[in-house]
């Protein structure tokens, strides 16, 4: 049962208890009690080529491990030469990965603005229903933090 309160926010009542914040969760496409977004962000660096690393990240065993640990998003910064590998995998496997592993795949080669947004997406934030995630990088210098 939905009721509007004075400030326009809806409340969902369940067994006589009010669940506040329902409208905000609806705006974000979530249902109350939905699984938190949990991001694994992988970066190979701006100019480096680490296609072997990308292949391992896209391996079904790795995707299964992400699923087992409740990840919902896999974002890959694949570098200068990883575009073809990433796009080919997504073209052939995106629906299977979403259906079987519950993962949304995104990727990009380089972002002139840096990687702060992607790294912050892996941080917990209860107000956006985001769980603590993971950042994986190559062993080079990481100057974004």
Describe the overall structure.
By secondary structure, the protein is of the alpha/beta class. The protein has 2 domains: 1-29, no CATH class; 35-137, 3-Layer(aba) Sandwich (Rossmann fold). Helices cover 32% and strands 21% of the residues. The protein contains 5 helices and 7 strands, in the order βββαβααβαβαβ. Strands 6-5-4-7 form a 4-stranded parallel sheet.
Shape: globular
Uncertain segments are 1-32
CATH-assigned fold name of the largest domain: Rossmann fold
Task: Write out the CATH superfamily name of the largest domain.
Answer: Glycogen Phosphorylase B
Tell me the distance between the termini.
45 Å
Strand content: 15-25%
Helical residues, percent: 25-40%
Largest sheet: 4 strands, parallel
Q: Would you state the CATH class of the largest domain?
A: Alpha Beta
Number of strands: 7
Give the topology string: H per helix, E per strand.
EEEHEHHEHEHE
Oligomerization category of the chains in this entry: single chain
- Order of the strands making up the biggest sheet: 6-5-4-7
């Amino acid at each position: 049962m939905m009721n509007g309160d004075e400030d326009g926010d809806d409340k969902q009542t369940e067994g006589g208890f009010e669940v506040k914040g329902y409208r905000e969760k609806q705006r974000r496409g979530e249902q109350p009690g939905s699984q938190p977004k949990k991001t694994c962000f992988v970066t190979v660096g701006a100019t480096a080529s680490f296609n072997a690393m990308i292949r391992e990240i896209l391996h079904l065993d790795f995707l299964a491990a992400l699923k087992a640990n409740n990840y919902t998003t896999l974002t890959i910064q694949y570098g200068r030469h990883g575009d073809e590998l990433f796009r080919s995998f997504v073209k052939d496997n995106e629906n299977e990965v979403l259906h079987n592993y519950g993962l949304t795949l995104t990727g990009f080669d380089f972002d002139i603005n840096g990687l702060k947004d992607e790294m912050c997406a892996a941080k917990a934030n209860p107000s956006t229903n985001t769980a603590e995630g993971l950042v994986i990088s190559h062993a080079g210098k990481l100057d974004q933090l």
